Amino acid sequence: MPHATQHADVAGIAAAELETALRGGPFHVALRAAIAARGLPLQRVQHHLSRYGVKVGVTSLSYWQQGARRPQRPESLRAVRALEEILHLPEESLIRLLAESEDRSATSRTAARSYRAVVAASDILAQLLAELDVPLDGGLHTLGHHERIAVGARRELLSRESHHIVRAHREGVDRFMAVHQGDPECVPEHMTVHALENCRTGRVRAHRGTGVLVAELLFDTRLRAGDTFLFRYCVEDGTAGVSREYVRDFGTPGGQYALQVRFDENALPARCHRFTQHSPAAPRSNRQELALTGRHHSVHLVEPRVRSGVVGIAWEWE
After folding, report:
1. pLDDT tens string 50-67
2. Which ranges in the chain are annotated with CATH 1.10.260?
3. Is 65 helix (H, G, I), strand (E, B) or coil?
4. Which of 11, 88, 137, 267 is 20–30 Å from 48 (CA)?
5. What does each C-alpha distance from 274 to 161, 247, 249, 255, 284 come to in angstroms?
6. Rounded to whole angstroms, how far apart are CA atoms 189 and 268?
7. What is the CATH topology of the domain spanning 2-105?
8. pLDDT at position 109, please?
9. Mean pLDDT across the stretch 114-123?
């Protein structure tokens, strides 16, 4: 049965190519391999997408699998997630590759961490908290959070100051676990944590490979459920090279968030912009240019009510 054997060989090759592409990308190669492995013409793919309530043209699908264009609009990202189901792919597989493609294309503009780096940092954070015998839920809801980032004369992330307003949602809360992640190649064990107001520094743990530092901030009182509390601390960093962005990942919705980035007068960026992401694996969206203020050389953003996802400010040097 030569035809059956030949068909099996072709299917096997297509499956192997798909497995390789999903593992290493890039996005357009994986998409093309997935469509080929399922034996679907683009018109059928478009039809399946319409059943998911997503409208994408055959031309766009063709451009995506050729690498001529990347999905970026919200509707396009919905289509990518639907394609993962239609083509029987692992969840987040195409989205992850799309995010990595975005990271690579932005290398000359920002030092965006890859999806793999984000996942590694999350795993290390969980390990450090487990070492300290601290639950992931610290018993506090954030009502307000103001961060001030200082970028030094060497264009390095010099320091981060955080001012928190929190409310306890269980009895006896008496500490907060502060998390800082420096830029690539930073040395977290050389960073210093300063308790500035209504707290004192307890145990500190660091992991050089991911740049993650965890510091225990001890309150002077035990909070009852419903109590509010204000505290402030600072992390002296300055251990990495050129900084190009600061991002904050929110796992759950919260209160107001404000981020201010202040630059040394001898190292001013050419351009700054804010951005958001639905998740660390998603492409960046809602880009908005930010103008430096005159005397203080700073930019800022304010989120009146935080939603789950990522918020950040990036800047470009000449």
Report:
1. 988 888 888 889 888 888
2. 2-105
3. helix
4. 11
5. 19, 10, 14, 19, 10
6. 28
7. 434 Repressor (Amino-terminal Domain) (1.10.260)
8. 38
9. 63
Round to whole Å and give the CA distance between 136 and 63. Answer: 43
The alpha carbon of 71 is separated from its chain's Cα centroid by a whole number of angstroms, namely: 18
Instruction: Please state, in angstroms and rounded to a whole number, the distance separating the CA atoms of residues 87 and 84.
Output: 5
| CATH for the stretch 115-316 | 2.60.40
**Residue linked to tokens 């975005």:** 102
List the alpha helices (DSSP H) in 162-280.
none
Instruction: Say what the pLDDT of residue 107 is.
Output: 42
Q: Which of 150, 168, 313 lies closest to 228, judged by CA?
A: 168
Contact 79, 38 (CB under 8 A): no
Task: Summarize pLDDT for 133-153 with one digit per residue, the tens.
Answer: 887 678 999 999 999 999 999
Residues forming a β-bridge with 165:
144, 230
**Token digits of residue 182:** 């420096």
Tell me where in the chain the CATH 2.60.40 domain(s) lie: 115-316
Q: How many CA atoms lie within 13 A of 227 on its CB side?
A: 14
Question: Residue 260 pairs with which residues in a beta bridge?
Answer: 148, 300
Q: How many beta carbons lie within 10 A of that of residue 55, not counting itself?
A: 12
Taking a C-beta distance cutoff of 8 angstroms, is the pair 191, 212 a contact? Answer: no
- Alpha-carbon distance of 145 to 303, in angstroms, equals 10
In whole angstroms, what is the distance from residue 16 CA to residue 33 CA? 9
**In this structure, which amino acid lies at residue 307?**
R
Question: Residue 50 is encoded by which pair of tokens?
Answer: 């319409």
Q: How far apart are alpha carbons 289 and 312 in whole angstroms?
A: 12
Torsions phi, psi for 111 (to 5 deg): -105, 50
